């Protein structure tokens, strides 16, 4: 009979898993990407909103025919969203997913 209380229920000591160096590195890698990029994007979006609110003459400046600065900034919001998504996918494929697979294999190997 096992003396481990988690063995009978099939549960795991998740605090021990979280304390492991690989798991800590996994969290550090994710946070070092997600928080700065989110901050930059929110700053870029806030700039767009503030310019639209407080500088309508600038945002209405024609650039090419009926296309103005505001329209270009609005379209760049979509472009930046897709660019950040592609950047994250590349980041995850190279730096996050391999370590996540290692941590997962370690956890599943303990069952």
From TrEMBL:
This is FIG00525068: membrane protein. The chain crosses the membrane at residues 33-55, 67-89. It comes from uncultured Pseudonocardia sp. Keywords: Membrane, Transmembrane, Transmembrane helix. InterPro entries: DUF485. The keyword Membrane applies.
């Amino acid at each position: 009979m096992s003396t481990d209380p988690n063995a009978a229920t099939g549960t795991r000591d998740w605090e021990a898993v979280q304390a492991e160096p690989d798991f800590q590195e996994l969290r550090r890698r994710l946070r070092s990407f997600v928080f700065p990029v989110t901050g930059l994007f929110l700053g870029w979006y806030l700039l767009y909103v503030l310019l639209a609110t407080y500088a309508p003459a600038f945002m209405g400046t024609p650039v090419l025919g009926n296309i103005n600065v505001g329209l270009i900034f609005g379209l760049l919001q979509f472009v930046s969203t897709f660019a950040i998504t592609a950047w994250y996918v590349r980041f995850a494929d190279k730096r996050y997913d391999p370590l996540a697979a290692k941590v997962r294999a370690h956890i599943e190997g303990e069952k």
